[in-house]
Amino acid sequence: MKIIITICRWIIAFSITLLTGGVALVFVLISYGKLRNRCVTYIIKPASRFILWVIGFRGCYPPLDKFPKHQVLYTFNHNAEQDIYLLTALGLQNVRFLLSEKTLIYIPLVISALATGTFYIPQKKHSKRRLQFFKKTTTFLKETNYSIAASSEGVHPHFHGIAPFNRGIYHMALEAKIPIVPMFIYVPEENNMTAFKYAKKGTLKIELMQEISTKEWTLENLDTHINEVRNLFVKRFNELNPTNKTT
Predict the structure, then answer these.
(1) What is the pLDDT of residue 5?
(2) Which GO biological-process labels does this protein carry (predicted)?
(3) What is the pLDDT of residue 156?
């Protein structure tokens, strides 16, 4: 029965994603991108919240007026399959998400992601393309007022904890001279649908953490600062999971 419930949840989620993402993408294309923010607000955001509700989860989100109006790098922990719906349920304006090319096999997600203007990061095994991607995205940040949202952990086996952080997005923020805004995603272990396993119904949450300036950062001390940011996530995770701490 649990397997059937899980399969039904994903069929429902992907079906709604395909439908609403497709509609949003059509509007984005025919408007040459001018309706992207409206599609995020009036199609992607409510659809994401509806998907979470239909498959058994309630999302708790910071109000939009608490988010910065200026250009930033939003970064977050990522160890649950529901994370993508939690993030798009925020309805952030003028934000481009970064997703791994590994997710290109999930066609409904790809269509919805294209509607929101998502950029796809080459995997680490494609080091030259990956380097060019970060250079191109850094230039994009310098030439526009768009923000970027990306996981600090990158591609990794999902588990209940905080994985090691990647360097690429932080180097990008340093070069583009933009601050970093961490967002902590809280998914209780029993509510985590990782690896398409059965999860209990429950409440999932995104917390907006304090903005971090990169003005004093240098390439030489970048790893130190990345570790400091990671420690913020580890601390918050352990506060919420006192009997199952991460390191």
Answers:
(1) 87
(2) phosphatidic acid biosynthetic process
(3) 84
